[in-house]
Amino acid sequence: MRVYITGVCGQVGSHVAELLLERGDHVWGIDNLATGRREHLGDTKNLTLTLGSIADKQLISETIEEFRPDLIVHAAASYKDPEDYHNDTLTNCVGAANLISAAKSMGVKRFIYFQTALCYGVSPRQQPIQLDHPLFPANSSYAISKAVAEQYLEISGLDYLSFRLANVIGPRNLSGPLPIFFQRLSEGKRCFVTKSRRDFVFVKDLAQCVLKAIDGTGHGAYHFSSGTDVAIKDLYDNVVAAMRLSKYPEPEVRDLGTDDAPSILLDPAKTFADFGPIDFTPLPAIVQSAVDYYNEYGVVGGYTHLRIDAEKKSAVV
Ligand SMILES: NC(=O)c1ccc[n+]([C@@H]2O[C@H](COP(=O)([O-])OP(=O)(O)OC[C@H]3O[C@@H](n4cnc5c(N)ncnc54)[C@H](O)[C@@H]3O)[C@@H](O)[C@H]2O)c1
Fold it and tell me: How far is the CA of 207 from the centre of ligand 1 (A)?
């Protein structure tokens, strides 16, 4: 199989690429290293890597025409500066449009996308959220621009699948609370936690599910979530435990920002029905594998799509 992966040096893209390469498939990856790292991917004969942007229409057309993939896995996204509407729309809207148009014109059979749970807004009408809940991404540049791509996919006529994700974490996770907690605790700085709760799922569990989707399971939108949430403080406590700190550093507890949601629970029933039961990796093991990665590679980034003072960031999702 020939799979074209965008954001291939990122957390999700690199784990999906690894599974495909391990079983002998061919991967053409593209990444501009905005938040991903080159070292997330080794060099192997079945991998071609293009360093460039999906917003470059010509580059996308030429590389897809040359590779002739069976399928596109679109994992690239821009989110690291909540005020940078320009780059968010270039990557998340124009980039997606380039990929969808190229897929249509070159007969690519299938398209896999990753959507943010913030597509439902920060005050969803129901918990857990059902797949037919209206999309209302009017809360951040990231959510607005990410929702657009799924709507283009809907009108494209392509056979597509959109995974609307809970909080995906594990090795190579460089955005959100986990790397920020690790970084600050390593520097002996105090962290704060908000009163929010989140459903944290392991990137390798997601990658296994994506592999099934690559092989033909599923059509349309799915939630990739466990359906249960934990307090951000539980995540913090797991990071402290995984770092084996001798003394427990008490975090400061803060109220939520206006662009943040108290909890976002996604109902995974359709995913279990179509993909089968998922044996979710427990949070302590997920956090330990992420901390092992940070210890080996260091933490760069600590990105977040939320509007907070960079000095104070420590508990955002
Ligand atoms: N991790 C989560 O919790 C989560 C939740 C909801 C949705 N998602 C979505 O899942 C996908 C993967 O997320 P991730 O956790 O791997 O993030 P990530 O930041 O690790 O990976 C994104 C990758 O896209 C690359 N990229 C950004 N702009 C690009 C451009 N213009 N051209 C080419 N490459 C570009 C980055 O360098 C990075 O390697 C994204 O679409 C994201 O919006 C992730």
Answer: 14
pLDDT in tens, 49-100: 999 999 999 999 999 999 999 999 999 999 989 999 999 999 999 999 999 9
The answer, yes or no, to whether residue 312 has pLDDT greater than 70, is no
CB of 6 shorter than 6 A to ligand 1: yes
Q: Is 10 in the pocket of ligand 1 (CB under 6 A)?
A: yes
Radius of gyration of the chain (CA): 19
pLDDT value of position 262: 85
Beta bridge partners of 77: none
| Integer CA distances (angstroms), 59 to 28, 54, 65, in order | 13, 8, 10
Domain ranges of the chain: 2-169+200-224, 177-197+228-263+281-312
* Atom of ligand 1 at shortest range from CA of 76: 24
User: Do the domains 177-197+228-263+281-312 and 2-169+200-224 match in fold?
Assistant: no
Percentage of residues in the chain having pLDDT higher than 90 = 86
Q: Is the pTM above the cut of 0.85?
A: yes
The residue to which tokens 């991967």 are assigned: 27
103, 72 Cβ separation under 8 angstroms: yes
Q: Which residue type does 226 have?
A: S
Q: Given pLDDT bands bounded at 50, 70 and 90, which one contains residue 311?
A: very low
Which helix (H) or strand (E) is 241 found in, with range? Answer: helix 232-242
- Domain 2-169+200-224, CATH: 3.40.50.720
Residue type at position 85: Y
Length of the chain: 317
Question: Which ligand 1 atom lies nearest to the CA of residue 174?
Answer: 20
Under the banding of pLDDT at 50, 70 and 90, the label for residue 4 is: very high
Write out pLDDT tens, residues 258-282. Answer: 767 788 899 999 999 999 999 999 9
CB 60 within 8 Å of CB 27: no
Here the tokens at position 35 are 């938040």
User: Would you state the CATH architecture of domain 177-197+228-263+281-312?
Assistant: Alpha-Beta Complex (3.90)
